[in-house]
Amino acid sequence: MHELGIVFHIADSVTKIAEENAVSHVNKVVLQIGEVSAILHEYLQDCWKWNAKRTPLFTDCELEIETIPAVTYCEDCKGQYATVVHGKICPYCQSEHTWLLQGNEAQIKEIVVEDESS
User: 0.90 exceeded by the pTM?
Assistant: First the structure.
């Protein structure tokens, strides 16, 4: 289960950003995950909840996941297509000279914090 390691990496990154900005509590982290990244969203959510309970900065912090669609590029016809639907073979020219353009990444999109001035 590599999801726990991913959660630790996210938490470390957000903790560093929170410290740099004098933030005492994070309400939500929005994470974008590629459609073919092999990250299991349910496991990631479970690991996040477990880690949030043991870290005061993340108490009751929500992890929101957005999916980045997988898109493949064809070197022969220069077309782009949905990877999950068509796989490695280009649906336009039947070429195998293709590569994944997007859909394997994981990145923090947004960090929502308490407004301490209220």
Answer: no
Smallest CA-to-CA distance from 61 within 106, 16, 10, 112 is with 112
Sequence-ordered list of residues with C-beta below 8 angstroms from that of 116, at least 6 positions apart, any chain: 24
pLDDT in tens, 47-75: 999 999 999 999 999 999 999 999 999 99
Interior angle at CA 39, CA 36 and CA 44, nearest 5:
150
Could you give the C-alpha distances from 55 to 12, 22, 70, 76, in angstroms and in order?
11, 16, 33, 50
DSSP state of 69: P
**Close Cβ partners of 28 (under 8 Å, ≥ 6 residues apart):** 61, 62, 63, 64, 110, 111, 112
Confidence of residue 2 (pLDDT cuts 50, 70, 90): confident
